[in-house]
Every structure is written in C-alpha cells, then in structure tokens.
Amino acid sequence: MPESTKVSDQMHAMLHRAGKSAGKGESFTRDWQDFLGHGIFATDGEEWAASRQLLRPFFAQNRVRDLDIFETHVQELLLLMKGQGKEIDISELFYGYTLDAATDFLLGRSVGSLGNADAQFARAFGDVQRIQNIRQRAGPFQVLVPLKKFWEGLKVMDAFIEPFVQDALNHTPEELDEKETESSSGSTWLQSVARFTRDRKVIRDQIVNILLAGRDTTAGTLSFLFKELSAHPVAYFKLRREILEKVGGSQAPTYDDLKNMPYLQHCISETLRLYPSVPFNMRIALKDTTLPRGGGHDGLSRVGIKKDTIIGYAPRHLHLNPNMYPAASASSPPVQAFCPERWETWTPRPWQYIPFNGGPRICIGQQFALTEIGYTTVRIVQKFDRLEKYWGVGDDMVKSEIVLSPATGVRVGFYSGVD
Known about the structure:
- With 419 residues, this protein is mainly alpha-helical.
- It has helices at 3-16, 25-36, 45-55, 61-64, 68-79, 90-107, 119-138, 148-169, 173-182, 189-196, 200-231, 233-247, 255-259, 262-274, 315-319, 366-383, and strands at 22-23, 88-89, 281-285, 289-295, 301-305, 310-313, 386-389, 398-401, 403-406, 411-415.
- It is globular.
- The N and C termini lie far apart (56 Å).
C-alpha cells in the first residue's frame, strides 16, 4: 500500500470521528480557556455544536457572495500600498485589512485599524498567541513559562473587545428579533449571539475565536501568496493577464468571476498546499478507539488508541509528502516548489489536501476565506502591473504561533503602469 494512502487513511479516520471518539478533550479546553474560553475552537460536544450553529448562517453562500464589504476595505488597503516600487511590509497591511473586514462582516462595524494600525491590539493578540503556543508545547512544564506578557495581552484584548460586547447587550432580545425580521440583510453575527445568550463571557469567547479565524488565517495566506508571487514574476504576469482578460483593469470582480479564473484558483490552492494556516494540530481520544494503520509487524494493521491519548497530525507535512506526487521532472516540479501550474494536471486524492481541516470540524468559513483572498488578490493585481521582491536570504522562514505566518514579514514593492 502506498505511504500516501496510509497517511490519508489515518487523517480520515481521526478527523471524521470528531465529536465521537476524537476531539479537543478536557485538557485542551482547560489549557486554552484563558485565551479562547469556551468558543468553537476549544470545545467538544453540545458546546461546540451550539457555537457552530451560531456561525453557520453567516457563511451561507448568499452572504459570502456579497463582496461590497471587501471593496470598502480593499480600497483603503490600495491607498497604503504606495506604488512606485516603494518598499513596504505587505504582511503588516494584510493583518490590518483582514481585521477590519472581519469585524465589519461579523460584528457590524469595522474597527478601522488599517492605516491607523491599532498596533496595541495586534501586538497583544500576537503575544497571547505566541505564549499560549509555548504553554501548549511545554506540557507538564508549562508552569515554568513566564506569563507576564500573556496576562497583559489578554487585558488589552479584552479592553478592545468590550465595546462590541456592550453594543450587543444594549439591545434586548426582542429588539434583536425585530432587527432580524425588518432588515433585508438580517442581523449581524454578534447580534445573533446576543439573541442566544446575555452572558458577557460567552460573547467575549466567541468574538476571540472568530477574530483568530477571520484575521490571522486569511492575512497569513495573502502574505504567503504575495511573497511567492514576488519571487515568481512569470506567475504574477500570468495571473495579471488572466485577471485583465476576465474583468479588465478597474472593474470589481463578481463572485462568479472569481470562480471562473482558474489560474487565480490554482495560485490560492498552491499557497495553501505549501502554507496551510494551521500546519500542526491535534486531537485527543475521547474514548478507547483505533486507527486503521500502525499495528502489526508491517504497520498496516489497526492500532489501539487508549482514551486521553494525544494524536498529533501535521497538514503541512502531509501536503509535502513526496509520495503523493509524480516523480520530479520538467513537467512535474519538486514538491517544495511554488508552481500553480501543477494543479492543471495534479489532483490530490481525498484527505491528502486538508488546508481547512476535514470531517465534522471542517472550517465553516472556508468559502468566505477563499472569496476574500481571491477578491483582494484580483483588486491588487489589477492596479499594479509589477511586483518587486525586497526580501532575501534569511527571510524565507516561517513561524507558527497557532497560525502559520512569515517570520520576518513580506517586504515587497509594487509598480503601476504610470510609475
């Protein structure tokens, strides 16, 4: 049996059982409660199901297809990108942009961090993620991890979030019901949460969870995409040609336009193949169970897994498994190479490509994220006909503080036809 099949079998077995025999587990919920509380990413069972039910309506296709919410913020982003080849850290701008878009879409109003650069919140959010990641990896030695910056960061985060919580609670459930009935676009996600609960802690936890997903994952993917495009000018020109042929140099793309740009979709898929947002993850056996491979003298038989066993899995390692690809050749680039063209002839088998996880806990915001990445990319590439790489040796490192991101930012410059 091919190695790639054995690995994908394990992934399918573990992720498909989410909520039954594998999940986050009590220890994970306990270890992460200071940061994520009892939000969707840190719970199992009925708690997790209730959180997912709150989110699902806001990622229905009719809401995802409404691109106006991105256009407002992408125009602010374009103004800050300078042009004329001026060196900028595009990654830093993407984090502000995605925070504004996420808060606008989910909470009903943007925090306006892009341009104003709410550095205090961004820095605090990053510190908390970094230290939480260290705590998780330290296991029984986490009591030795210094937590001063962690608690300071949480205090800044909670002060940032509190106005949104208060705004939601200023309306009675009856008033929110009327908003849902009277508004053509319905209530915001936050208003839906306030209809479900009046508990400030529950609302706070859900906001933190959704901001982690809505800001960091999309910003990281956009950062890696433009980093790779800056290193592959032929790919940038090819992408720009497709965009101009499809929608021209100024027209905003529709949802259908985005889906009908194959090279754009290949560029996004290739970025997520190389840089899945969560490169390493884990599940805990919620009861005694088995995995389909790993037992017997040849490792091909089932293997027993006792309750409370931690099962780690690495989507990035899976995506870079050379056994999943044809042998490297002129028509088949190396596994580690950025090559959107590979998607013209290569299709991963089920459970060999999982940038959005899989099974019952597959990312509920997958289409929203892909749409935001695609729309943002089109609007940037429409405006700038050339992308200059300013990062160099030593700048190709990545860091994973829950979510994967470029370790040293992405220093590039953009040129338009008039520069």
